[in-house]
Design goal:
The chain is of the alpha+beta class and 425 residues long. Helices cover 45% and strands 11% of the residues. It has helices at residues 9-12, 48-63, 76-87, 94-107, 109-112, 122-134, 139-158, 166-169, 185-195, 202-210, 214-218, 292-312, 334-348, 356-368, 373-380, 385-388, 392-410, and strands at 14-18, 24-32, 38-45, 225-226, 231-234, 236-241, 249-250, 255-256, 273-278, 286-289. A hairpin with a 4-residue loop joins strand 4 and strand 5 (231-234). The N and C termini lie far apart (69 Å). Residues 178-405 form the Tyr recombinase domain.
């Protein structure tokens, strides 16, 4: 095993002197800055013995690799800007980066951006979280901001900008548990009946039976479906990305030359609009077995779409070959897809529900039908058991059913009560 590189005299020399203020000062060479110049740390003590001990402690931390690099002790705002602009873009998807940037710029930088990293304390963060709650922010939002900040400061620790991460110690507010409210089986039947006469009717059968995320459902291409095997691959998602300015910056590099504030209004706008992107994790990229009735419904939908393409003619965007496109074959706008869901709920005469509740409904249906939790997690693309545990009402039903069955096995001939599943409204 190779030992630590031996430092040159120039890299280990420390200078001490008594200043005009009467205090003892030292400049300790701690290493080399990014520009190649020596990184010399200044310390000051009232007595020479105290200074000698402080210098020796610094030199030990340097020689053992435990020194926290403090070339400039940046502010929290400066570090977050570096992290968001230079570190994250190569590691996360655009939507994740956009969300992180928005949360930091809105909720952290205006209040805590001027605080030096070395001065940041867990109590500082906890006080800020309390102010956010008092100003009307939800506990879920505060928790999300805390997670992003913790990630950014973890990177500062990894790069020796911080000795420890105060966000790891700080306690964000507890998120009130929200019980999932799935649609009932009768509501699902009414929704599918109302959708049957509308364009892309199979879109809603996919939502309620497979529980795909909205972007995943809109990103399905016909080549992802194997009609012979009755399977569907989830590999892509439709995503709306914010337009960026394509013009140059003026006024010190802060104002766009076009004069518009929003990138969407810039004549040279770029990198925005509705895009087809890869799913974000390996768990999201999955293969799902389809219920036989859904396979047949998708066959009918493919035939109807082929007829629609003939009517539209050359205006149809055929290269994407999407299963649920708009009238020109382009990716469906998620906002328009959401409005269609709300219109179908109204036509079906059922209670108002989020589009994401269709995903909850599919998960609950699978659980109460006796599908084991690990299989449900694979179908839904979940990576954490905590997500599945939100469906405790369905799991409780399974526990009661298990107790009923063991009772019937060990005490045959005794009466056991029937289980009424929650979706049998």
């Amino acid at each position: 095993m190779k030992g630590r590189r031996r430092l040159s005299p120039e890299e280990t020399t420390s200078s001490k002197y008594r200043g005009k203020d009467g205090r003892w000062h030292a400049r300790v060479t701690m290493g080399t800055r990014l520009d190649g110049r020596p990184d010399r740390k200044h310390i000051s003590r009232s007595a020479k013995g105290e200074l000698d001990r402080a210098v020796r402690a610094l030199e030990r931390s340097r020689d053992t690799g435990q020194y926290t690099w403090t070339e400039s002790d940046p502010t929290l705002g400066q570090w977050l800007e570096h992290w968001l602009e230079n570190v994250l873009p190569s590691t996360v998807r655009w939507k994740t980066l956009s969300t992180y940037r928005s949360q930091m710029e809105v909720h952290i930088v205006p209040v805590l951006g001027s605080v030096r990293l070395s001065s940041l304390r867990p109590e500082t963060l906890e006080q800020h979280y309390r102010r956010m709650l008092d100003a009307g922010s939800s506990a879920s939002l505060v928790h999300a901001v805390h997670r992003v900040l913790r990630s950014g400061l973890n990177e500062a620790v990894r790069r020796q900008r911080l000795a420890s991460n105060p966000a790891v110690i700080a306690r964000p507010p507890r998120i009130p548990r929200r019980e999932v409210q799935p649609l009932t089986r009768d509501e699902c039947v009414a929704i599918l009946g109302a959708a049957r006469t509308r364009r892309n009717a199979a879109r809603w059968s996919v939502a309620l039976s497979l529980g795909l995320r909205q972007g995943e459902a809109l990103g399905i291409q016909w080549r992802d479906i194997d009609f012979d095997k009755g399977t569907m691959r989830i590999q892509r998602a439709v995503q709306r990305q914010t337009w960026e300015h394509g013009c140059r910056l003026v006024a010190g590099g802060s104002q766009p030359a076009c004069g518009w504030k929003r990138g969407a209004d810039c004549p040279s706008r770029r990198n925005g609009g509705i895009r087809l992107v890869e799913t974000k994790t390996n768990a999201s990229r999955r293969s799902i077995s389809l219920p036989p009735p859904l396979v047949e419904e998708l066959r009918i939908h493919r035939r109807d779409q082929a007829q629609e393409r003939l009517r539209v003619g050359p205006a149809w965007t055929s290269s994407l070959d999407l299963t649920f496109p708009d009238e020109a074959g382009r990716p469906m706008d998620p906002a328009r897809d959401w409005r269609e869901w709300k219109a179908i709920l109204g036509a079906a005469g059922v209670r108002d529900a989020r589009l994401h509740d269709a995903r909850h409904t599919a998960a609950t249906l699978l659980l109460v039908q006796g599908v084991d939790l690990r299989t449900v997690m694979a179908i839904m693309g979940w990576t954490e058991m905590a997500t599945a545990q939100r469906y405790s009402h369905a799991v409780d039903e399974l526990r009661v059913e298990a107790a009923r069955r063991i009772g019937a096995a060990l005490w045959p001939g005794t009466a056991t009560r029937d289980i009424t599943m929650p979706l049998n409204s």
